[in-house]
Amino acid sequence: MTHYRFWGKEKEEEYMKTMRVYRLTNLSPTLFRRLKAAQMEAAQVWNLCVDTHKQARLSHARWPDQHALHSLTRGRFALHSQSVQQIFRAFLGTIQTTRTLRREHPQMRMKYPWRTKRFYPVKWPAQAVHRDKGRVVLPMGKGNPSLILPLVLPDHVGACMLVWNRGFELHVCVEVQEAEAAPGTVQATVDLGEMVRREVA
């Protein structure tokens, strides 16, 4: 199993966030199609944000903010409301980063998001994730059946993300006490705004 450890800024000395990766194997055809449909639905949220922002730029109108995108996406997609919020917040973060790079490093010629996506990872915050007798229940919004995955997760489970990596994976965030000495011998550190350590067991 591969673990991704993220040091939180608020409690940097107290805990690490470990992202545990669970391969979703032996899925029924129906469940496989539902997971695929969920990522396609998430992509539609992203694409709507892209189109809305593009139209605002072309018309010299006010760029959509979090409130505007919340109103625009509310109740329109077969996803949990907070999953939708995760997507447009990620989009706004990309816009802010791109805007900064365009101003401070014009030679990079950074473009605002423009490419249409077919699939996009689906995220659920910790409070939306439910564990029930060896299963994980992930809500898909009002009026839509939840995704039920046959997984046994640790007690202190946090946010989850459905990812495609040559097959579906569920990335689960858990908080663990920071060890005095990191286990394992293979490590790599990448600067992504936070300090990230990847350990391969």
Helix content: 25-40%
Biggest sheet strand line-up: 3-7-8-2-1-10-9
Oligomer: single chain
Class by SSE composition: alpha+beta
Our Rg estimate from Cα atoms comes to 19 Å
Element order, helices and strands? EEHHHEEEEEEEE
CA-based shape: globular
> What percent of residues are in strands?
25-35%
Please count the helical segments. 3
Q: Biggest sheet: strands, sense, closure?
A: 7 strands, antiparallel
Span of the ends, CA to CA: 6 Å
The average pLDDT is: 85
Strand tally, please?
10
Low-confidence stretches: 1-15, 192-201
Overview of this protein structure:
The chain is α+β, with helices and mostly antiparallel strands and 201 residues long. 31% of the residues lie in helices and 27% in strands. It has helices at residues 29-58, 66-73, 81-104; strands spanning 2-7, 15-23, 122-124, 130-131, 136-138, 147-149, 157-164, 168-177, 187-191, 195-200. The protein has a seven-stranded antiparallel β-sheet with strand order 3-7-8-2-1-10-9. A three-stranded antiparallel β-sheet has the order 4-5-6. Helix 2 packs antiparallel against helix 3 (81-104).
